[in-house]
Amino acid sequence: DDAESLWKLATHKLIKTRYALNLDGGDWIIDCFEERNAPLVIAEVELTSPSDRIEKPDWCYREITANKELSNVALAKKPISEWPIEDRLDSLLNSQ
Q1: CA 92, CA 35: separation in Å to the nearest integer?
Q2: Is the pTM of the predicted complex or chain greater than 0.70?
Q3: Which terminus of the chain is less hemmed in, N or C, by CB atoms within 10 Å?
Q4: Which residue in 86, 14, 17, 21 sits closest to 60, CA to CA?
Q5: Of 56, 60, 67, 63, the residue nearest 26 (C-alpha)
């Protein structure tokens, strides 16, 4: 009940479905965004230490860790559907 009450009060909301994958080299979290952030999908891997090496799956396209525009907070405030198409492409294609 508390969570539902807080959700109603939130001015910025983010809706996504989260999936967990246990792959060799780490546990992955896959977020499939909905509504105004669809069809964005972001994957992250949970490492035990910063020095851990990962084997990036073929379906994993770009490293976006440093891209603050794609953080949950940023996407809640300014959903990707509100970005000009040029900004969407630039943010996704030019991330390291």
Answers
A1: 19
A2: yes
A3: N
A4: 21
A5: 56
pLDDT 10s digits, 41-71: 999 998 888 888 888 888 888 888 888 999 9
pLDDT of residue 67: 87
CA separation for the pair 77, 81 (Å, rounded): 11
- How far is 23 from 89, CA to CA, in rounded Å? 29
- CA 55-67-15 angle, 5° bins: 90
Closest CA to 18 of 58, 62, 72: 72
Containing H/E element for 84? none
- DSSP conformation letters of 21-82: EEETTEEEEEEEE-GGGTT-EEEEEE-SSTT------TT-----TT-GGGSHHHHHHS-GGG
